[in-house]
Fold each of these.
Amino acid sequence: MRARNGLLRHPKLYALLTGVLVTLAAATIFAAAGVHSSPVVEPITASEQAQAEKLAIAYANIASSDGKGSDGTTWPDSVVSFHVVASSRGAAAAFAGSQSDSDSRVIVAAIAGDFTLIAPGPPGSEYPSGHQLVIVIDPATDSVTDVGVSGEVRDLKALGDPVSLR
Amino acid sequence: MVQSGAFPGTPTASPFGFWVDQRPGQNWWLHSLLEQPLQSVHVSIERASASSFQVYFDGVGGLSTSNSMASTSAEIGSEITTSLARSRASFSGMYWSDGSSWHPKWKSSLYTNFGHDAPNTFAWTTQGSAAWAGSPC
């Protein structure tokens, strides 16, 4: 996250609704997200692995076409692998094509399979779909802070030493 | 595509503000920013460099890096996932910058969009550097 310094340089504007969406669309997009080197963080613990798997199963069921009817507590059949790694907020942000000055510890979970997310986007756009679903978890709150879908399966080794759980 | 907004929440989830971007190869990312956002918030999407976009949502935000998209249009509205749903979006201004000055699209004091009407869109042929939504305060 970044401070609002840039916003204060401009006229103050505000939107008046819940659920307002502002979209800047593109005709062409050229570049992919880069990944920065990973700082040293404490390895993921067994309890963090269990919590990450619980959240990952829930998200995988939401995003899997064959997950309909599932109780959300077991992996969808389409999931072929699941890896988790402890990393820093900054490294995880870079992995996601963003930026963060925070050194806080996060858990990154990557699920390989076939996914489609019913997610926000410009009117008429297709829902994001791909073969890897990634969620970033704040272990302090067990909340999911970032969700990503990509066409290719990206290696978590860029973030640390991943653990294979499926 | 770069986007920012708020989910209104569900019976099992709290409302939260977010931003989204999408890159080649269907690399799509949603980043949550804050929970329980106010109903009146500042939202802006601004080109920060030739390959990045700065997003602000009520004081917090993110930077979409390695993103050299050529933006051609901007939209503001309220999304629904079924034609049976209704939503309301109220705002009073949408501005874009050519890098040195700001240009309003709508000069009326209040523009309101009800139901599942098409979102409010404007486009440009000269590259814009930023788009804002809201009203002066």
Amino acid sequence: MARAATTSDAFNAIAEPRRREILDLLAQQERSVGDLVDLLGLAQPQVSKHLTVLRTVGMVDVRDEGRRRFYRLNGGALRPVHDWVSRFEDSWTARFDRLDGVLDDLKKGQQT
Amino acid sequence: MTEMADVRRAVVSTPSDTEILIVRDFEAPAELVYRAWTTPELVARWWHAERGSVTSIDIDLRVGGRWRYVMVATGGFEVAFHGEYREIVPNRRLVTTEVYEGAPEAEAVTTATFTDVDGGSRVEILVQHASAAARDMHLQSGMEDGLQRALELLEDLTRTAR
């Protein structure tokens, strides 16, 4: 199965560790590009490139204030990722609930 | 059935972009969980996750031995997984390879650890994929599952509404 383009898929957007770091930092508070450059220890062009990807998939929103540009997290865009993982969780939860039943029977068997 | 009624969800996290970690506590010692995990007729009772019926469970529990699980999902299609045992520490740890036969090129390595904790045990399953794409596909299989179940529920609802 081909992977979707980085710029159109939430999962690919967050597959890059640096972009996850950016999302973590923005989850704390809105930050300027300069702040992110300092906090990440990356060159500005790299940070800007990551921000462009995150902005294209709608994970961050941007606001200009004078000559400075501020980014903030758009939690709604992370929803598909959250849903995806939680559906996977559902399947394991169902499986483990059944395993609980098997274990109960094994415990009863040991007592007798 | 009081404490068991509490919803004890499997907790899934993604420690890196090629891994999936699944953690769940059980009210039974690690030894019993391990037995339910490695005995074919017991695996057949829980592995289907209520999304179908298990048609075969083969377990050759020795290093280099093969395993294969097959179920027919509610939609009628067959879902099969197989792999090889790489490391076996009875009641403690199982390392296996795992291939979903629908995508045989993607082999994952799964490490299951069984640890006694206060009043029960903890199971941790670390799935390591060769690539982020394979890992994402694995997570997506859960989504298809969920969708399948949603469709079944919808079907039930439409039936009762008739």
